[in-house]
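Tutorial handout. Part one gives the primary structure; part two gives the three-dimensional structure as tokens.
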Amino acid sequence: MTFCTSIHCMDGRIQESTIRYLKENYEVDYVDAITEPGPCKILAENQDKILVDSILSRIDISINKHKSQLIFISGHYDCAGNPVDKTTQIDQVQKSIEFLKHNYPDTEISGLWIDDRWKVYGI
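Part two.
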């Protein structure tokens, strides 16, 4: 039984496609979903200590209890919690990856982008 951790928006339009993509492309059985509106912005800016600590606490559970060895952070088209363009969100995803690598240096961390058709791409 293998797990990965996906930090993605609470937007219901991206849930199924994100989980399906991770299961199909990374051979995991389960996806621990950590959802917030606009999480790539939250982690990239690292200004809201309560939200950042909450996300990190949930990652800790996924890694320590479920033995997740992969973390994904994503951005998506038409995000209500982070209404910026694709380029800005991809930059935020990259900054989030760097932030997470600092906190979880022994864990593989990657980014995702979900487009207007809810198709998931690795970035």
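Part three, for discussion. The CA atoms of residues 25 and 103 lie 25 Å apart. The mean pLDDT is 97.
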